[in-house]
């Protein structure tokens, strides 16, 4: 496999799939530039070698054709500022401008293409007809450049035109991952295949159903599996506890029981919270009470873990050498129910300072470490929630397969 580190881009045009799917404010200004900054090392490497860069990305979910609010034009000021160079723009990724401007691109120059998803051929790939259209679309994109670089981890689990299909139109030594995807793979492989023990996975968030596969795959790898957040209550109800109005997936009670049995059989320490903060409504201003985790009651829902759980989980985290964290311990968006999630995030940061390797991924846990200012105190924060979960489930990601083979 061609590695970006030892590739010389001098005189080459590189088309780079980046993830510029950034949040925009009221005036369409970029309100969080994390993803743009994530792409800089790869862009800078190509430019420093004496190559030129064609950037392509999606932004949002346009329904049919161009829409101002999804235009990639809005990222130009931020990108230009961060790179310290002018950015050329093609207002249609398939149009005359894209063709002419990419053909005229000189070493050191950067061209940004308009949103790929203004064409349904980019991401509609179900029927044979759609797949054929995607091939044509991807083939045309490939003609703009000599080399293809995929650095968009957030879409690596999609078999879209620009994330996977385009790779078929480049020779093995002319396609590669960018630095960001390389870092993501390295972090996930460290956790999955080369972890120092004890290893602890912390799974939170709302639903068990989203994470069954991940939990199953992790049972072969971890020493401790901590379950927190809303998904706790499906496990509690399954073991006969009282959950009142807490979140519960009635059709997953058997699955929860099975997972507990499997963990036991594999010698994995499955840890559930022991206490909780009950609330009389789903509201920051709700009346609250502390209760044991099995002592829910009618008219109340558990919205955070309690102090005893925080203490017990902190001890496990502090004794771990590898940690994977996905999903909050409670409704951390509401200040009165964020304590469990903040405490766990702080414990992970502290354990990391003592030499533990910690990988945080999944939209909400990433939002949590950012909100609490701890993002640079963990070992790695993944940029792809869905992609990371699928990789950890053991699935082959189309965007990775397209390059690795
Ligand atoms: P997920 O997308 O499955 O990772 O779930 C994240 C969401 O779960 C966040 O928006 C949290 O507010 C929510 N959540 C976490 N704990 C609870 C809980 N005990 N009850 C209801 N929602 C929760």
Number of structural units classed as domains: 2
What is the end-to-end distance?
8 Å
User: What compounds sit in this structure?
Assistant: adenosine monophosphate
Count of discrete alpha- or pi-helical segments spanning 4 or more residues: 14
Can you summarize the main beta sheet? 6 strands, parallel
CATH superfamily of the largest domain: Phosphoglycerate kinase, N-terminal domain
The strands making up the biggest β-sheet line up spatially as: 3-4-2-1-5-6
Query: What is the CATH class designation of the largest domain?
Result: Alpha Beta
Average of the residue pLDDT scores: 96
* SSE-based structural type: alpha/beta
Query: Which parts are unreliable, with pLDDT below 50 for 5 consecutive residues or more?
Result: none
């Amino acid at each position: 496999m061609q590695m970006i580190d030892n590739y010389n881009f001098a005189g080459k045009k590189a088309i780079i799939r980046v993830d510029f799917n950034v949040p925009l404010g009221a005036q369409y200004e970029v309100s969080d530039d994390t993803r743009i900054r994530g792409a800089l090392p790869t862009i800078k490497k190509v430019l420093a070698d004496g190559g030129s860069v064609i950037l392509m990305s999606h932004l949002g979910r346009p329904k049919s054709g161009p829409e101002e609010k999804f235009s990639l034009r809005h990222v130009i000021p931020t990108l230009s500022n961060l790179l310290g160079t002018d950015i050329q723009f093609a207002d249609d990724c398939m149009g005359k401008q894209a063709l002419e401007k990419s053909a005229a691109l000189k070493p050191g120059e950067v061209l940004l293409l308009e949103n790929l998803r203004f064409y349904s051929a980019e991401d509609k790939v179900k029927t044979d007809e759609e797949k054929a259209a995607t091939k044509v679309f991807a083939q045309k994109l490939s003609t703009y450049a000599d080399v293809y670089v995929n650095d968009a981890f957030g879409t690596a689990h999609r078999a879209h035109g620009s994330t996977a299909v385009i790779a078929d139109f480049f020779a093995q030594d002319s396609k590669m991952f960018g630095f960001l995807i390389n870092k993501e793979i390295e972090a996930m492989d460290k956790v999955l295949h080369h972890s120092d023990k004890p290893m602890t996975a912390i799974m939170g968030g709302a639903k068990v159903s989203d994470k069954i596969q991940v939990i199953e795959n992790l049972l072969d790898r971890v020493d401790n599996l901590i379950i927190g957040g809303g998904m706790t209550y499906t496990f509690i109800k399954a073991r006969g506890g009282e959950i009142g109005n807490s979140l519960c997936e009635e059709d997953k009670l058997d699955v929860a029981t099975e997972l507990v049995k499997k963990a036991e059989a594999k010698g994995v320490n499955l840890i559930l919270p022991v206490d909780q903060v009950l609330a009389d409504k789903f509201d920051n201003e709700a009346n609250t009470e502390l209760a044991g985790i099995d002592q829910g009651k009618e008219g109340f829902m558990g919205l955070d873990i309690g102090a005893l759980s925080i203490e017990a989980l902190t001890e496990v985290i502090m004794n771990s050498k590898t940690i994977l964290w996905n999903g909050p311990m409670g409704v951390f968006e509401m200040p009165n129910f964020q304590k469990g999630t903040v405490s766990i995030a702080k414990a992970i940061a502290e354990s990391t300072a003592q030499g533990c390797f910690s990988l945080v991924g999944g939209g909400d846990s990433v939002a949590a470490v950012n909100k609490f200012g701890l993002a640079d105190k963990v070992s790695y924060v993944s940029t792809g929630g869905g992609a990371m979960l699928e990789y950890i489930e053991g699935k082959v990601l189309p965007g990775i397969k397209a390059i690795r083979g």
